[in-house]
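hey can u check if this looks right to u? its 51 residues, i copy pasted from the old doc so theres a chance i mangled smth
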Amino acid sequence: MARMIPPAYAEKTPIGEKGLFDKLRGDPDTSGWIVLHSPPAATQTPPLVAT
């Protein structure tokens, strides 16, 4: 199961993104993964992920 950062999604998150979040978080094949899923994580200064 993946480690999700942040560990939850906002209520206003689109249904498709919620489904993907739940799939990645609950899938045993993602064990050891770290998933950055929040758009603010990608737009922070400095960015947390490469763009």
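The first strand starts at residue 3 and ends at 5.
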